[in-house]
Amino acid sequence: MKVKFLAFSALLMGLTLTSCDDTTEMIGGSLIDNVDKLVVTTDTFNVSSKSILAQDIISRSFQGYLGSIKDQESGLGVTANLMSQFHVLSTYELPAEDKIMSRDGNNQIIADSCEIKLYFSTFYGDSLAQMKLTTHELAKPIEEGSIYYTDFNPKTNGYVRQDGIKVSQTYTLSDQISSSSIRASQSYSPCITIKMNAGYTDKNGIIYNNYGTYLMRKYFENTNSFRNTYQFLHDICPGFYFEITNGLGSIANISTAQINMFYKYNNGDTIKTVTTSLMSTEEVLQMTNFNINSSQLQQLAAEPGHTYLKTPAGLFTELTLPINEIITNHAHDSINSAKIELKCMTSSSAGDYKLDIPQNVVMLPSDSLTSFFAKKHIIDNKTSFLASYNPSTNSYQFNNIAGIVNLYAKQITTNTMSGNWSRVVIVPVELGTSTNSNNTKIITKISHYMGLGSVKLIGNNASNQIKMPIVYSKFNGR
Question: Which of the residues 142, 225, 325, 413 has the least number of beta carbons within 10 Å of its own beta carbon?
Fold first, then answer.
């Protein structure tokens, strides 16, 4: 039997390489006795699909977003507001107090000026679009360890300090101030600048000439509060909420928020103006709150002839796998391969600012949609699968989802079928990766894709359905 086992293993390896064929054939006569001949068959089934509203989307992303746009293809409006906290290192320090030359009339140290910069790596829309935002100081930090969804609004949930900083201003993403040579330099990073130079009153009623002075004096009162992030967030600076209050036409992909304090410093030889900064990092929360018209989403979801993948927090595609048909007349067969290709439709939008096609999607059981992201799972290729957009075929290809098909088939025999039995959901995702010792890229994190993306998938149509080829195998006479 050892020889037969080795032959069977080799055969299965060959089967894996040929599982995408659409032919029915008999394999194994030259390798295995006729009694144990392996019979391989294929069949193809139709898969039904529909668009569903994306719900309970966890606001956990590697990037933040700020702005407001309208999708030219669908007319859907999307507004993104940003909450950001700031991280301090255990080694954080300011110069010695007697070296700081910026002073008020009482000889107390001050910041000459203060600002927040929101650096963006990319943006969608028109860089000249006039936008208006209001910067709100938080009254308390949004705590780590809890799950927050994309509809979580710090302002309506009581996190904004009512008598705190409230700075309103207009902005465009196009930098009209810096020279062309500065903008062309490698060190240049585009940003939205928020001036924080107005007088500031802290929670204890103490008045400062600006927010930077507040931070500097708090540092010299207790340096430990600036060397522990938890203390800094709870005692000094809970963070800020950046809310879009007017304007339409751009959304920026915010990579970093940074507080800058400017003051004069005596280095022993000269007095010069220096900057001290605090930044947002992965160690603290940066969350985007999306405001999307749900009635518009429902109208899009009801459109026939296609389904949608629309981000952020928009629409997913749900597939119903024909499990009963797949196992009918195959009770004693093994399902070796199940393949699905989701073909994309060419966008009908003729505008300059078409939304990008999401580059990575996962397929998950409908019942596992929320828990997969809440528990920070990674795909296992058994019940969760990853596909990347292929521009040459204009499709997403799931090469083998036999694991989920077998799971649903088993649930029939064990009578453990749920209300979402046989259904899977296609979800756009963002991948976090690292490189191991073998220089191989591995996936370390999967989260909902929060960028602006949209694509129509062929399906939801009786005359143009999604196809699902299945490869079965069994031993002859068994």
Answer: 413
CB burial of residue 388 (10 Å; 0-12, 13-18, 19+): exposed
Which letter, b or e, does each residue of 203-218 get, where b requires 16 or more Cβ atoms within 10 Å of its Cβ?
A: eeeeebbbbbbbbbbb
Other CB atoms within a 10 A radius of the CB of residue 165 amount to: 20
Q: Which DSSP state fits 16? A: H
In sequence order, what DSSP letters do the residues of 273-294 get, joined into one string? EEEEEEE--TTS-EEEEEEE-H
Q: SS3 of 72, please?
A: coil
**Cα–Cα–Cα angle for 286, 291, 297, nearest 5°?**
130
Question: What separation in angstroms does the CA of 319 have from each of 25, 425, 426?
Answer: 29, 6, 8
CA 250 to chain centre: 19
Q: Are 58 and 448 in contact (CB under 8 A)?
A: yes
Separation of alpha carbons 250 and 67, rounded Å: 6
Per residue in 187-238, pLDDT (tens digit) is: 889 999 999 999 999 999 999 999 999 999 999 999 999 999 999 999 999 9
* Closest by CA position to 242, among listed 166, 313, 311, 150: 166
| Amino acid letter for position 9 | S
Query: Cα–Cα distance between 34 and 32 in angstroms, integer?
Result: 6
Stated as kind and residue range, the H or E segment containing 85 is: none
Backbone angles phi, psi at 308, to 5 degrees: -120, 150
pLDDT digits (tens, 9 = 90+) for 295-328: 999 999 999 999 999 999 899 999 999 999 999 9
Say if CB 334 and CB 473 are below 8 A apart.
yes
> In the numeric block, which tokens belong to residue 445?
């994190």
For the chain, the structural domain boundaries read 41-55+293-475, 77-292
